Amino acid sequence: MRELTYNAEGLIPAIAQDAETREVLMLAWMDAEALRRTLTTGKATYWSRSRKEYWVKGETSGHHQRVVSVAADCDGDTILLTVEQTGAACHTGNHTCFFTELTAGDVA
Amino acid sequence: MRELTYNAEGLIPAIAQDAETREVLMLAWMDAEALRRTLTTGKATYWSRSRKEYWVKGETSGHHQRVVSVAADCDGDTILLTVEQTGAACHTGNHTCFFTELTAGDVA
């Protein structure tokens, strides 16, 4: 396996992108086991930093992410998942978590 | 400004997406000042964790990122930049940093 670099907590950021709309849906975290489960089951599986447990996306909401492909970046410290997203990726009901626009006025 | 959550090092992950191709190009890190510079100059500006300095993307390579829009995610701990990428985003010459595919065989 390509060498991956995990942070001090043993985690690596994982970006999920919608395979169809190409929207960036969310960023969550994986440890090596979450990545193994993601690759072997085809279901996006993250490590919940708040709940300190594995989190199969959609397990409670039904909003699963079927993994289409997984890539590591050039220095092996970020993962990109391309997924078929069922329903909304965001717990707010938005399709993507990135719905809050920031402008220069926000930092003036 | 929308409240953002920075990590223990005062940093927040920033994903850059190509506005035209919709490819996810890279993930880098920003502190509050890098985000301020990004929003006010329209040039993607990161914090280099290895060099410990601000890093205007393309300043040495010429491969600039002109910022089209900036969004925060629902819990304010990740930034998404939509950019017009000049040349390759990746220092390897690839358009995107995410060119290394991972498969279940990698973790068998």
From TrEMBL, chains A, B:
The keyword Plastid does not apply. Zn(2+) binds at residues 74, 90, 97. Mg(2+) binds at residues 73, 75, 77. Its cofactor is Mg(2+); Zn(2+). Homodimer. Its main location: cytoplasm. GO terms for molecular function: magnesium ion binding; phosphoribosyl-AMP cyclohydrolase activity; phosphoribosyl-ATP diphosphatase activity; zinc ion binding. The gene is hisI. This is Phosphoribosyl-AMP cyclohydrolase. GO terms for cellular component: cytoplasm. Binds 1 Mg(2+) ion per subunit. Binds 1 zinc ion per subunit. Residues 26-99 form the Phosphoribosyl-AMP cyclohydrolase domain. GO terms for biological process: L-histidine biosynthetic process. Its EC number is 3.5.4.19. It is found in: Cytoplasm. Belongs to the PRA-CH family. Signal peptide: none annotated. Catalyzes the hydrolysis of the adenine ring of phosphoribosyl-AMP. Keywords: Amino-acid biosynthesis, Cytoplasm, Histidine biosynthesis, Hydrolase, Magnesium, Metal-binding, Zinc. Gene3D superfamilies: Phosphoribosyl-AMP cyclohydrolase (3.10.20.810). InterPro entries: PRA-CH (IPR026660), PRib_AMP_CycHydrolase_dom (IPR002496), PRib_AMP_CycHydrolase_sf (IPR038019). It comes from Tessaracoccus defluvii. Coiled coil: none annotated. NCBIfam families: PRK00051.1 (NF000768). It catalyses: 1-(5-phospho-beta-D-ribosyl)-5'-AMP + H2O = 1-(5-phospho-beta-D-ribosyl)-5-[(5-phospho-beta-D-ribosylamino)methylideneamino]imidazole-4-carboxamide; 1-(5-phospho-beta-D-ribosyl)-ATP + H2O = 1-(5-phospho-beta-D-ribosyl)-5'-AMP + diphosphate + H(+).
